[in-house]
């Protein structure tokens, strides 16, 4: 049963367009709209890690603003030279090495065990980008070392069938030829620092661009890949409803044309915030980390949040008052229970 006074925040995936969510959170902070739980996919999982670990929306807005201004000045896209070289060498082996070369190219992963751990990834699926910029931001801003701290936080991850198969499945689903399997959801809070880092990197790891993350003996990629037709993985509302029992949820999309349908969740009050009139280059927007573009996305997120929330401001105020009253009643009930226990003694 959902709690009538619990608010969730969903941060969808979309690469560089994640700057939009910094603007959304800034508006939420200005209006003192405090989420009780957060979920994220892909870039939304990285933003969500900062929001959830901050604990309160004002600190979250301030930190996200700082992070995305930092990103605007220094693009996080960093080519992995060894990964690219490994891919080229395997192509060359397959093309010019005859039968032995093709066997060696296909079987490269078998040699990974003899390499130091940090080089083993170059023997598996191709990796073109280095994820160290993401790791650096998480280490500095997401408080990964804090055990069970911050707001409840869930991310979507996609159990891999191999990078090529995962991408092909996503493309087929996008073309309406099939449906990809659903993404799974993991709660970040109780995990160790290393496990948190792996889960967050997995949720944002686009196949072939970034390396898969091994968690519990299984490999995982970008959570946005799963259930692509219904945008199930890329808009991870399910854990906030089923696990956190949120009755009211704010959902941020990073494309106005998302096919995600809130009518699939009739028992939940949902407010959607979608980008309005800012589309430029389609999928290329996901990789547009230019300074002016990032700043424009941030401002657009703020303006769209304002346009979406202002018409329901009275309802949100009533919701906040109801939550405060509910919290006071719970505190009174706890105090009464403690008093009764004391009397029994």
What's this entry about, in short?
By secondary structure, the chain is an alpha/beta fold. The protein has helices at residues 19-30, 43-54, 57-73, 81-96, 98-106, 132-141, 163-174, 193-203, 238-242, 291-309, 313-344; strands spanning 3-11, 37-40, 153-159, 184-187, 213-215, 218-222, 246-252, 269-273. The protein is built from 11 helices and 8 strands.
Shape: globular
> How helical, in percent, are the residues?
40-55%
Global Rg: 22 Å
SSE string:
EHEHHHHHEHEHEEHEEHH
* Proportion in β-strands: 5-15%
Largest sheet: number of strands, sense, barrel closure: 8 strands, mixed
The termini sit apart by 34 Å
What low-confidence regions span 5 or more consecutive residues with pLDDT below 50? 90-96, 101-106
* Content-based structural category: alpha/beta
What's the number of helices? 11
Average pLDDT: 81
What's the β-strand tally? 8
């Amino acid at each position: 049963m959902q709690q009538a006074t619990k608010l969730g925040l969903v941060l969808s995936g979309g690469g560089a367009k994640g700057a939009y969510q910094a603007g959304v959170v800034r508006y939420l902070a200005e209006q003192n709209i405090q989420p009780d739980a957060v979920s994220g996919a892909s870039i939304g999982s990285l933003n969500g890690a900062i929001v959830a670990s901050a604990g309160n929306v004002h600190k979250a807005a301030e930190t996200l603003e700082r992070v995305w201004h930092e990103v605007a000045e220094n693009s996080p896209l960093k080519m992995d030279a060894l990964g690219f070289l490994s891919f080229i060498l395997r192509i060359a082996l397959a093309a010019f090495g005859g039968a032995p070369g093709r066997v060696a190219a296909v079987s490269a992963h078998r040699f990974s065990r003899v390499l130091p751990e940090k080089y083993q990834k170059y023997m598996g699926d191709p990796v073109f980008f280095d994820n160290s910029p993401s790791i650096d931001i998480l280490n500095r801003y997401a408080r990964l070392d804090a055990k069970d701290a911050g707001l409840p936080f869930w991310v979507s991850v996609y159990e891999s069938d191999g990078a090529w198969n995962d991408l092909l499945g996503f493309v087929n689903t996008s073309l309406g030829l099939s449906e990809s399997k659903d993404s799974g959801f993991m709660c970040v809070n109780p995990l160790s620092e290393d496990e948190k880092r792996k889960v967050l990197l997995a949720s944002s790891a686009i196949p072939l661009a970034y390396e898969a993350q091994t968690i519990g003996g299984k490999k995982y990629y970008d959570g946005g890949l799963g259930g692509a037709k219904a945008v199930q993985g890329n808009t991870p509302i399910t854990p906030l409803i089923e696990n956190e029992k949120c009755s009211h949820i704010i959902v941020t999309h990073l494309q106005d044309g998302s096919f995600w349908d809130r009518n699939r969740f009739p028992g939940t009050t949902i407010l959607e915030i979608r980008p309005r009139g800012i589309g430029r280059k389609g999928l290329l927007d996901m990789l547009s980390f230019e300074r002016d573009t990032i700043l424009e996305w941030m401002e657009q997120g703020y303006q769209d949040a304002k346009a979406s929330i202002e018409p329901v401001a009275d309802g949100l105020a009533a919701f906040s008052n109801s939550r405060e009253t509910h919290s006071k009643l719970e505190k009174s009930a706890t105090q009464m229970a403690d008093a009764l226990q004391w009397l029994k003694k």
